[in-house]
Amino acid sequence: MKHIALYIHIPFCARKCAYCDFTSYPGRTERIPDYLDQLEAEMRASAGRYGSLTADTVFIGGGTPSLLTGDQMKRLMESVRRWFAVSPDAEITSEANPGTVDAAKLAAFREAGINRLSLGVQSFDDGLLRILGRIHTAREAEDAAYMAADAGFTNLSVDLMYALPGQRMDQWLSSVETALTLPVKHVSCYSLIVEDSTPMKAMVEAHPGCLPDDETAVAMQHEAARLLRARGFLRYEISNYALPGFESRHNLVYWRRGDYLGLGCAAHSLMNGERFSNTASLEEYLAGVRAGEPETLTERDAYEETVMLGLRTREGVPAFLLPAAPLEKLARAGLMHIEDGRAAVTEAGADVLNAVILELM
Ligand code: SF4
After folding, report:
1. 295-332: per-residue pLDDT in tens?
2. Do 122 and 167 contact (CB within 8 A), yes or no?
3. Each residue of 173-226: pLDDT tens digit?
4. Of the candidates 322, 273, 278, which has an alpha carbon nearest to the alpha carbon of residue 302?
């Protein structure tokens, strides 16, 4: 039986955050029951296409999966178990927005089988949360983490963002320190990317110089890594830190280019070397249209993906995959190291990952 990572996209949000360019639809929650019907239909079709599949990990992402009620999450997980075998020790993650959870909902998510919660906090500074357009306060984020722990989530992650407009180093480190006071096992630290056509782009253009410069952004990442390392969190991927044994098994499948099946609006898949995605239109998906564009990957594409994704991780890639001369040069420069037949970037190399990849390609 084929083992996969299963991703389910929930494209609903309470409100659009200022920086967001993910596929998410604010204010359409009345369509969630219909959406769950379509997800089940897609699961059934996938079973018909691939036969028996075993999900070693399930990741319910968004959007805002925590807009589902407890009963809706139970229904979704019942559908998953109807159409897929789920490994007994499967990692089953749901993302959650702190502004959409309470103790009863979190308990229902646990009952549904969710055993890992990824809280989208972004900052523990109320002023910055407002700038980001988040729907929750810092206090609500802390409360959500404690409620999750009370509900039995022993595998809790928080997402934080840095290099935000007007953000000072002390504000950033205060957010990281606050995260470390919570019962978390995993912390993701993402640099803000200002995407075109977002309100954030207009805001940044209206206030030139409001973003921390590149040097400060790199220093923010270094200082966060220092704090996290001191508390036993290993940087196992360029933006992700975990206590040993709490690395995201689901995301590791992406970085290792394993097989993953994405269900729902705008979900992406890589199955048997074939990459494809679903329509990003909620209306189309609700009308039963699924297929987006299939992509044909050449051997070179697959190789480049393996290297680019693998070099994001601490485990790196098999060293023999990389051209010898550039690899030696990067190793001599202290940007890569080779050990046990694998090549990975050093901390210094991680700061200039794109340049390292360019050199190797
Ligand atoms: S909650 Fe997440 S998906 Fe929804 S609008 Fe905000 S950033 Fe985008």
Report:
1. 778 888 889 999 999 999 999 999 999 999 999 999 99
2. no
3. 999 999 999 999 999 999 999 999 899 999 999 998 999 999 999 999 999 999
4. 273
Q: Which atom of ligand 1 is nearest to the CA of 20?
A: 8
pLDDT over 90 (residue 13): yes
DSSP 3-state of 110: helix
Residues 349 and 196: their CA atoms lie apart, in Å, by 28
Kindly give the number of the ligand 1 atom that is closest to the alpha carbon of 15. Answer: 5
Amino acid present at 131: I
Peptide bond into 63 cis (omega under 30): yes
| Residue to mutate, 17, 95, 193, ligand 1, most ligand atoms under 8 Å from C-beta | 17
Residues with CB under 6 A from ligand 1: 13, 16-17, 20, 22, 24, 62-64, 97, 120
Query: What is the Cα–Cα distance from 213 to 148, expressed in whole angstroms?
Result: 36
The CB-based long-range contact list for 212-220 (8 Å cut-off, 24+ gap) reads: 212/162, 212/163, 212/164, 212/167, 216/163, 216/169, 217/162, 217/163, 217/191, 218/351, 219/169, 220/162, 220/163, 220/169, 220/172, 220/191
Compute, in angstroms, the gap from residue 72 CA to the centroid of ligand 1. 20
- The pLDDT value recorded for residue 93 is 98
User: Top-level CATH class of 2-254?
Assistant: alpha beta
Task: Round to the nearest angstrom and report the end-to-end CA distance of the chain.
Answer: 36
> What is the mean predicted confidence (pLDDT) over 55-59?
98
Domain extent listing, the chain: 2-254, 298-361
What would the two tokens of residue 176 be?
């990281």
Percent residues over pLDDT 90 in the chain: 88
Please, what CATH class does the domain formed by 298-361 belong to?
Answer: mainly alpha
Chain mean position to CA 114:
16
Mutate to test the pocket of ligand 1, among 19, 24, 123 (most ligand atoms within 8 A of CB): 24
Tokens 């390292």 belong to residue? 356
Contact 112, 73 (CB under 8 A): yes
